[in-house]
Amino acid sequence: METNIKNILGEHSLKGREYQQEIVQSVIEKVYPHVVTNLGPSKYREETPSVEVWNDIYARYSGIPEMRGEASKKTKAEWKEEDNKIYIYYLNMEDEEDIIRSLLHEYTHSLQDPDPEKRAEQRKLGYDNDLHEIEAHAAEENWKDYLKYLNINLTEQITNN
Fold first, then answer.
1. C-alpha distances out from residue 77 to 20, 113, 121, 127, Å
2. Can you give the pTM of this predicted structure?
3. Which residues of 114-127 are buried (b: 16+ CB within 10 A; e: fewer)?
């Protein structure tokens, strides 16, 4: 069954950020294990990246819960090699597509060659020509394959709460 929570996260903001966070966390818990299984383990890292949900990138980096900055409204997710974690910024997630695409994109980065010299060469090409970014964006295109793991209708769950 295909669920659709398009704009529901924003529409139900009266229920609070914690509720938005719970919805995003629920999608992650149902989908991420399948992303890992389908894309496979990294040949560069022993551990599978964990996923943490945060309200904002600036809040995470600063440690100040209400901190905001110029990228606050557009940063959806990131993978940090240093701690091998995927960070999902739940306030910027609009629907299940956003969440699943973010997981696929960032997990793909965790699978890529971490050689600093190779990364530097890729970055010189610019974001749109960076082969690592091209690969991560290509992985996102399979997001619909993961809808089957959302075995509950999130729209009904939100409406009934």
1. 16, 20, 23, 16
2. 0.85
3. eeeeeeeebeeeee
Please name the residues in contact with 94: beta carbons below 8 A apart, sequence gap of 6 or more. Answer: 6, 7, 9, 10
What the block records as the tokens of 42 is 């990294």
Look at the chain and count its residues. 161
Of 3, 19, 1, 87, nearest to 11 by C-alpha is 19
Q: What is the pLDDT of residues 3-28, one digit of tens each?
A: 445 444 554 454 678 889 999 999 99
User: What does the radius of gyration of the chain's CA atoms come to, in whole angstroms?
Assistant: 16
User: In 8-143, at which residue ranges do the beta strands (DSSP E only) sit?
Assistant: 50-54, 77-80, 85-89
Q: At 61, is the secondary structure helix, strand, or coil?
A: helix
